C-alpha cells in the first residue's frame, strides 16, 4: 500500500512538474512561432509584390553567412545541435539561436530561397527550452526532457499538429526506436504551444482528402487490393525521393565547401544558381515556402492536391531548389519543401497509376517527410491530424515503406542508430 | 552506387520475403480467428437461450484444468509464452496451443465465464507462426519476427483493427520502448489476416463517437480546456482501474494456488463464486464477453456508449467477474473485459463530469486496455481505427495518462522493462 502511494505520488508530481515547466515553454515557443509564421506570411507577400527581390538572393546569402559568423557561436549546427545536447549534454544551446534562426529564415524567404519552417520552429523551441532549463536549474536528465519538449512545442505549433509534434520529438532521436518516458511532458508542451500559437490568431492551411468509393475486386474483400499495391509502390518511390534529397543536400554542402574556397561566396553562388534555375524554368513557383502561390495556377502544395496542380517533374525541381538553397548556406527548415516534393510526386504518380489525386498527394506529403527524417510513426499520425483517420492504413503503409526505402542517412546527421532499419 | 543497389535490393528482398511468409500466416490465422469469432457468437447465443448453463461453470472449469493438464505441455503459459519465445527463443511454442486455447475459451464462454478474445487470437496466431517457422526452417532472428507477425495477425483480425495489431505486436514486448524493424512484416500480416477474417463473412461490432460542438472558454482557443482537464483526470482513473485489475487477478491466482491444495478445485470454486455473484447482483450481464447482451437493456459495451447504459459500479463488477474467471483458471483474453470496464467507467465518469457519454466511454474503452497491457500507442491508434480521427488528442492524453498511472505490473508478466515509465 505504501508502495502504491509512493508510485502514484511520484506520477502526480511528474505530471504537475512538467505541466508547470511546459507553461512558460509553450507561452514563449508558441508566441515565437506565431511571430515567425506571421512574419513569414508578410515576407512572402512582399516577395510576391516585388519580384525583383529574387535578384538579391545572393546578397541575402552573404548576409546570413556573416550573421552566423559574427553572432552564431555554435548555433549554426541547428537541429543537430539540439539532438546532440539531448544525447550528450555538453556545450549547451545558446539563447541567440532563436533570434538568429528567425532572422535568417526570414531573409531566406524574403529573397526567394526554397526552404521550410520546422527547422526554425524546432530551433526556437530548443533554444527557449535550454534557456528555461538554466533558469530553473534543472538537472541533466530533466534538461534532456525539456529539450524534447522544446522540439515538440516548436513542431506542434508550427504545423498545428500537437500529437505529431510530441511523437516527432520522441522518434527523431534514434532511428527505428522510440521510448515513451517523455511522452506526457512532450504532449503537454506541444499541445499548449499549439494553443498559444492559435490564440495569437494564426491559422494553418487546411488540406483535405475527400472520401472515395473504392471498388473492391470481390464483394468479400473490404479493401481495394490494387490501390493498396499502388500505395506500396508509391511508398517506395517516396522513400527514394527522401533519399535523393538527403544525399544531394549533403553532397552539395560537401562539394561546395571543397570547391569554393571563400566561404561567403558559397551562399552567393547558391543564390545565383537558384536565380538561374528560375530563368531556365520560367517560373518562381519553386522558390520560397511553396504552401500556396502568388497566382491561382502556380505549382504549390495546396494545388498539388488537385489534378493538374503540379507538373510531372515539379517534385524534382522543388528537390533541386531546396537542396541548393539549404546545402549552400541559407536557413530554414526542410519539412515544408519535403511536403511539396511529396505532394507533387504523389500528384504525378496518381496520374500514372490512375488513383485519386488528393489521396496520393496526401500520402506523398507525409511519406517523403517520413523517409527524410526517419519518423514514420509521427508522419502516420500527422496524416490523421491533417487529413482525418479514414485512410490510416494507407498512411502507415506509405510512411513505413518510405522509411525503409530511404536509406540510413536522413537529413539529421546527429540522429543515432542502434541497428539497421530491417534485420 | 553499388551500395545504393545493395541496400535497395536488400529492402526489396525483405519486403518480398515477409509478404510471402505473411500469406500462409494470414490465411491460417485469419481463418482460425474467423472460426473462433463465429463459434464464440454461436456459443454465446446458446448460453442466452439456456441460462441454466451457468450452473455448469464449475464443471467447465474442471474440464479446462484437465484438458491443459493432459494435453497442454507448456502451452498454458499463453501469451507470456509467446513473449518469452520472442525475447529468448527456447522451448518453442507447441502446435496444440491453437486448438487448446480455442476449445477452452469456448468452454469458458459457453458456461458464462467473464473473459475476452484477444488472448485466444494472439495465441492462435503465435502458434501458427511458430509452426510455420519450423516448416520454413527460419533462422532464429526471423522466428522472432514471425512470432510478432503472429501476434499482429491474431490481434488485427480479432478486432478488425490491422494497424493497432501491428503496433501492439511491437509495443507489447518491452514497456515504454518500441522498435520498428518488424513493422512492415507485422503490418502486412495483420492487414492480410484482417482481410481473410472479413472474407469469411465476419463483421465486427461498430462503435461510434458522434461529433460534439464544444464551447471553448474563449474565442481564441480552439479547444475546450475544461473537457481536456476532465479527460486528464479520467485518464488517471482509467490507469488506476487497469492497475487494480492486474493486481487483483495476480493476487487471486497467487492466493488460490496457496489456499486451495487441489488444483482442479480452483476453477470449480471460481465458477461457484461467479454463480454466487450473479445471484447476489441478480444479473448475468457481467458474464461472458459483454460486447452486447441478451436483452436490450443489459449492461454491455455497446450500451455503455449511451447515457443510462451502465450503472455506477458496472465497471467494478466486470472487473471482479473477470479477475475471478481468469485468475482461477478459465481461458480467454483480458482485452474485451478491459474494454467493458473502461467503457462502463467512462459512462460513470461522464455523468459525474458532465461530459459527452460516448466520448468518455470510448476513451475508457481504449485507455483501461492501454494501462493494463502497457501499450498506449497501439490504443491511441485503436481509437482512430474504431472511432475515427476527430478526437485524437483526447485518445493520446487518456491512453498515455492511463499508462503512467497504471503501475509497472500490467497483465503480461513476461513483458520486459528497461527503465521506469517516468524518469
Describe, in plain words, how this protein is organized in 3D:
2 copies of one chain form a homodimer. The first copy, chain A, is an all-alpha fold and about 425 residues long. Helices cover about 65% and strands about 0% of the residues of chain A. The model of chain A has no long low-confidence stretch (mean pLDDT about 90). At the A-B interface, helix 1, helix 6, helix 7, strand 2 and helix 8 of A face helix 1, helix 6, helix 7, strand 2 and helix 8 of B.
Q: Numbering strands along the chain, what is their spatial order in the largest sheet of chain A?
A: 1-3
CATH superfamily of the largest domain in chain A: Clc chloride channel
Count up the domains of chain A. 2
Assembly type of the shown chains?
homodimer
CATH class of the largest domain in chain A: Mainly Alpha
- Approximate shape of chain A: globular
State the distance separating the first and last CA atoms of chain A.
Answer: 44 Å
Strand content of chain A: under 5%
User: Which structural class should the secondary elements of chain A be placed in?
Assistant: mainly alpha
CATH architecture label of the largest domain in chain A: Orthogonal Bundle
Helix content of chain A: 55-70%
- According to DSSP, the number of beta strands of chain A is 3
Q: Biggest chain pair contact, residues each?
A: A-B, 60 and 61 residues
CATH topology of the largest domain in chain A: Clc chloride channel
The Rg value of chain A, from CA coordinates, equals: 21 Å
Q: Low-confidence runs of chain A (pLDDT<50, min 5 residues)?
A: none
What is the average per-residue confidence, as pLDDT of chain A, rounded to a whole number? Answer: 92
Number of H/I helices of chain A? 16
Q: Encode the helix/strand succession of chain A as letters.
A: HHHHHHHEEHHHHHHHHHE
The main sheet of chain A comes to: 2 strands, parallel
Protein name (chains A, B): H+/Cl-antiporter ClcA
InterPro entries (chains A, B): Cl-channel_core, ClC, ClC-type_chloride_channel
Keywords (chains A, B): Membrane, Transmembrane, Transmembrane helix
GO molecular function (chains A, B): chloride transmembrane transporter activity
